[in-house]
User: Which sequence fits this backbone?
């Protein structure tokens, strides 16, 4: 079953892949998308709040911890 943290990592990978494809095609939108992702990761690091994890937690719930 998919959970918020895994869904966020998958989404991040897809967005980075799209940014790389756009950049390799010479589009400025790839650079802008990459800058947006970097800014969001910096905000997450500084504030310990990630909007996508918050939203995905509301939609699909947290991952269950297995110890």
Assistant:
């Amino acid at each position: 079953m998919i959970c918020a943290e895994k869904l966020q990592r998958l989404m991040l990978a897809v967005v980075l892949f799209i940014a790389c494809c756009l950049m390799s095609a010479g589009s400025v939108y790839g650079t802008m998308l990459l800058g947006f992702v970097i800014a969001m990761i910096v905000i997450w690091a500084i504030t310990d709040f990630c909007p996508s994890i918050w939203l995905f937690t509301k939609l699909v719930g947290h991952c269950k911890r297995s110890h």
